[in-house]
Amino acid sequence: MASIQDQLDQITASTRELVPAERLEVGERAVMEIFASGIEERILPVDATAPDFELRDSTGRMVKSADMLALGPLVVKFFRGRWCPYCTTELEAWRDLYGRIRERGALMVAISPQTERQSDFLCIQHGIPFPLLRDHGCELAEKFSLMYAVPEYQRDYYLSMLVNIPFINGEPSWRLPLPATYVIGRDKKILYAEAHADFRVRPEPEDVMKALFAALTH
Question: What is the pTM of this model?
């Protein structure tokens, strides 16, 4: 089975074949600027205490981190939205691992700024079994130091591809989270933390699972 990064690299290769170089340069410039900002070094790190949260899932039901952590460790995925093929491919990989997570007594959620309706579409289209939670305005992502604003020059690029982020997110800020993966212990201690300024790079789920299973054996 291909690694998640191999699958994502194939998306990148296909994009480079189809999209003119001058349009690709817009995304490359944005990635370099996000990386240069040092945001990767500022994300909430391992051994920090994760903030509590109460967010609505795709059905409008309120989901509380405290309730989930009372049952077991928690895998938390921050993703950009259903419009991002890298995010949907990654969520599908986690979908296929979700049974193993539950068998071990752990839980998982995925969090994005998109509206509940967008998340409902995503759940249906991709068969996502774990809750997809709405982080309105990336307020929780900001607490994890993951939030950034899409630069002006990239906004026009997204709109030209019919990716209207203010419409998708239901608010006008153009805020997005870095794609990020966390494992949070029942005591709210962060056991695994990884985020990348380059949205095309994601951690291998099996590496995250090792951190999760280590938490379950202690």
Answer: 0.95
